[in-house]
Write a sequence for this structure.
């Protein structure tokens, strides 16, 4: 998070840089704020939500960093092995957890598609070898089909001429 307060520039993770006009550039490290207890909603400013109306100048908007997972998200969380059952999934989870689970699901789906593609390639190879044993080819099929069409066209022309 990047926030300017007076002549200080807070870069997040406790790093503060003094950047006022004429001030020497120095970086100080402040201890990072403690994480809230598990189960309570997190907020981007680190504090609890305030219901005092409009916020003043220089304050950060407090946005909840946890959200309710949809049924699809729950299925992805189960499929990727993050949780063992639907009952274990909490009502609110961090979006990073959902993103990580979606990425893992995407990779698993790609691996499945790669495997199916390899299986399909082997199936085509086997069927092509069997067709060669029967002396079948696309060229012979096309020639036979066109010969049949010519015969049908000739019969239709004879029937029309009568």
């Amino acid at each position: 998070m990047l926030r300017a307060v007076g002549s200080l520039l807070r870069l997040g993770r406790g790093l503060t840089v003094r950047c006022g006009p004429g001030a020497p550039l120095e970086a100080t490290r402040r201890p990072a704020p403690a994480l809230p207890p598990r189960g309570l909603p997190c907020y981007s400013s680190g504090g609890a939500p305030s219901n005092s109306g409009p916020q003043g100048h220089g304050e950060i908007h407090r946005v909840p960093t946890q959200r309710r997972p949809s049924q699809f998200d729950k299925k992805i969380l189960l499929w990727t092995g993050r949780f063992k059952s639907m009952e274990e999934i909490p009502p609110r989870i961090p979006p990073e957890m959902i993103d990580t689970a979606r990425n893992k699901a995407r990779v698993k789906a790609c691996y499945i598609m790669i495997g199916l593609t390899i299986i399909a390639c082997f199936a085509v190879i086997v069927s092509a070898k069997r067709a060669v044993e029967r002396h079948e080819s696309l060229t012979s099929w096309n020639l036979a089909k066109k010969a049949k069409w010519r015969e049908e066209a000739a019969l239709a022309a004879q029937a029309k001429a009568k």
Notes: The first helix runs from residue 71 to 79.
